[in-house]
Specification:
Two copies of one chain form a homodimer. A two-stranded antiparallel sheet of chain A has the order 1-2. Chain A has 131 residues and is mainly alpha-helical. Chain A has six helices and two strands; from the N terminus they run ααββαααα. The structure holds a DNA duplex (30 and 30 nucleotides).
Chain lengths: 131, 131
DNA sequence: CCTACACCTTCCCATTATGGGAAGGTCAAG
DNA sequence: CTTGACCTTCCCATAATGGGAAGGTGTAGG
């Protein structure tokens, strides 16, 4: 299977597959006589794993750790869970930051008339002298 | 006032100030005879504005728009409000994506024993053949 | 007056994960 | 053998910084 077919089969673009190989997330691909990358069912399986992990917001280094655990038959589920909970903490922290922005902005927008006049509490707040 | 003092006074690092000038978010700074950037009270005011906008998650292009409105005495608050509401939509969309990740991961983590055994619904899910 | 030392300047590199595109080789069908 | 689809590598760009080098400036103390 060539890279284009692997990409179509897994939803991971050819560009990304080459990138993952380059940074060492994937081992070096087998190559055909002419230098084309060749993928087998196991490779597709791994690529799909990576794609799902990306969708859940894991960074490449974290996926690397997840892959290592996945392939380690002697892993403990505690290790996997710990990794995921750390990720959950980070996601929640990010959500908290974004939510705080939303709260502030919504508060300001609620007080903005949104008409033709220039007065606007939003700009007024951004302009304030404190902080 | 030199760049270091302006940075200390506004909380915007010297690096960032230079960057903002370079990309045109700030006009070209006045310079001393020896080439040092010189900042006055107005500049500090603008830098503080930018810092607050950054903290509320606005991108540089959006801040550029906000600054233009801020400095336009003939603006309408409707324009400001529209910009902010677009931003709010984007923030909320991002939060939604992150929250969906959290929901999925929490669900999986809840089902993971987190002990010494290798069985783990998290890896099992990432590995699944569908999707 | 000269020497430190702190601060300034510009320039280049790195970050994260990906897309775009060029130049050139390969393969299968007609 | 040509065409077109596909592959290869390589370089560039993204957003918004931080790090650090090489070299000029400004000031304070000896």
């Amino acid at each position: 299977m060539n890279i284009g077919q692997a990409a179509a089969a897994t939803g991971v673009s050819a560009k990304r597959i080459r990138y993952y190989e380059q940074i060492g997330l994937l081992g070096k691909s087998k190559r055909s006589a002419s230098g084309y990358r060749v993928f087998d069912r196991d490779d597709l399986h791994t690529l799909s794993f990576i794609r799902r992990a990306r969708r859940l917001g894991f960074s490449v280094p974290k996926i690397s750790a997840l892959l290592a655990l996945w392939q380690d038959q002697g892993r403990s589920s505690a290790d996997v869970k710990r990794l995921v909970e750390t990720h959950l903490d980070e996601l929640r922290e990010k959500i908290g930051e974004l939510q705080a922005m939303v709260d502030t902005l919504q508060h300001l927008a609620d007080r903005c008339d949104g008409d033709k006049r220039p007065d606007c509490p939003i700009l007024h707040d951004l302009e304030r002298s404190e902080s």
